[in-house]
């Protein structure tokens, strides 16, 4: 788990799962650098495509302790799977961000399929076209 902060204030937690055979000696590196910089520079891997799922959650006891916020504080969780150009998944990550300190901007080109889940209080199939 990699805690991230800005000006000494907690911002997020990152949990990354990387295949050891693709990233030998990764944990011996300077992990304060951006991972994608190291992936490309040190291992010759760039993401060809990435799936990300964003959802609002509340801080668990463990997350609250690490982020120095009350249990139940709103968070934004992002789960990501990055694949190389041959389709090999090389990164599986779960990040949680303090919702009041983050803004996400997305840009899409072409057709984008939207979906909503029943857990979000939306009826079955709503949001898909």
TrEMBL record:
GO molecular function, one term: DNA binding
SUPFAM superfamilies on file: Chorismate lyase-like
GO biological process, one term: negative regulation of DNA-templated transcription
InterPro entries assigned: Bact_HTH_transcr_reg (IPR050679), Chorismate_lyase_/UTRA_dom_sf (IPR028978), UTRA (IPR011663)
UniProt domain UbiC transcription regulator-associated: residue ranges: 1-103
Pfam family, one: UTRA
Highest taxon above the source species: Bacteria
Protein name: GntR family transcriptional regulator
């Amino acid at each position: 788990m990699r805690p991230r902060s800005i000006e000494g204030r907690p911002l997020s937690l990152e949990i990354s799962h990387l295949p050891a055979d693709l990233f030998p000696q990764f944990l011996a590196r300077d992990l304060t650098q951006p991972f994608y910089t190291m992936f490309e520079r040190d291992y010759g891997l760039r993401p060809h495509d990435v799936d990300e799922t964003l959802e609002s959650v509340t801080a668990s006891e463990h997350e609250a302790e690490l982020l120095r916020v009350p249990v139940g504080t709103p968070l934004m969780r992002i789960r990501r799977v990055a694949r190389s150009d041959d389709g090999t998944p090389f990164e599986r990550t779960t990040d949680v961000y303090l919702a009041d300190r983050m803004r996400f901007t997305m840009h899409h080109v072409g057709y984008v399929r939207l979906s909503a889940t029943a857990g979000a209080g939306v009826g079955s199939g709503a949001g898909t076209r």
